[in-house]
Amino acid sequence: MHIALWILLPTLTLILTGFVYQRIGGHRDCLRYAGAGRWVTIGEGCRLYLLEQGSGGPTVLFEAGIGATNLNWRHIQKAVARFTGTASYDRGGLGFSSRCRTARTPGNIALELHDLLKSADIKPPYILVGHSFGGLVMRRYALLYPDEVAGVVLVDPMRCEEWPPLNPSKQSQIELGKRLIRYAQPIAVCGLTRLAVTSLFRHSKRKKNKISGNLAGATVSGGRHVISRIAGEVGKMPREVWPVVAAHWSRPSFYEGMRSHIDSIPDTVREMERAEPIREIPVMVLTPGKSSPLSAACLSRIGDNVHQVIAPASEHWIHLDEPDLVIGSIREMVTAAATESIAATV
User: Fold this and answer.
1) What is the count of structural domains for the chain?
2) In this structure, are residues 126 and 116 in contact, taking their beta carbons and an 8 Å threshold?
3) Mean pLDDT in runs of 10 for the chain (346 residues)?
4) CA 33 to chain centroid
5) How far is CA 156 from the centre of its chain?
6) Helix, strand or coil for residue 215?
7) What pLDDT is attached to residue 200?
8) 316 within a domain of the structure (yes/no)
9) 62, 83, 225, 300 - which has most CB atoms within 10 Å?
10) CATH no. for residue 337?
11) 62 domain residue, yes or no
């Protein structure tokens, strides 16, 4: 009995210490890294983190991929803000935003984005820019609020035909993601994720090593490929955002938000498979050179005024592999929208 108590008490003490460490660390992260933006309440106590840069119009709105935050666009947003107003944000359940209140489908997220823009007093017209899953959100937004949208740039948008229920072959990837999250969330609550991720990022930055090698080496074999791929892309981001990425990955709410996004993939696919094409609004689709180009039939399902651009040196994250191409595409949309606006007033 005494032996059991001697084992139990230190264990409980360590868990409690880790919990306190995590809570204090999360609070310090907000104070240290979130000062550039602001939180906007969109109803029922839901607060979304918003980052605005630049001035003028049309405003360029950025939507990140399924597990990413506004950090994913930080270097692109900074460049675009030199010639027009911009806004990026963290979806509910991710980054510095509060927990999500609805299923993470494009329709629900587009409604929340609209509420955010209205509450933040960011006026249309907008140029919508979305990567991967974020591309589906921007398509849905353009369908719901076409009068507010001057153009759309889709950066390798998620291809619904590749995911369940249309394509059951990737169900194993979804299940793997769920398993990793199920293990990660309780570890994050106890502060161990914060300790490990922060140390690995710091070591990578100090030794100028690749994040992917360090993180993959610390991961169980089942998830090593997934973690290596994600970390490899993060390694292409500006090093000044690495500590903020580490802060996001250290939050238990991040894993809860990721689980909500993954759980909603089948509903997302069903929703977008039934979606109407975007009418009259110009759409530019950037496709990686290392992927198959979208067919004419696929492009016609996106919209009736779609132009596809191949990014020859890119994989999935074109805005990290060829940022100048993405910036140039956005500038082209902004210029066209401004010219049309001037012509309409003459």
Assistant:
1) 1
2) no
3) 56 58 79 93 91 96 95 96 98 94 95 97 98 98 98 97 92 89 84 76 58 47 54 80 88 92 96 96 97 96 98 95 97 91 63
4) 17
5) 13
6) helix
7) 67
8) yes
9) 62
10) 3.40.50.1820
11) yes
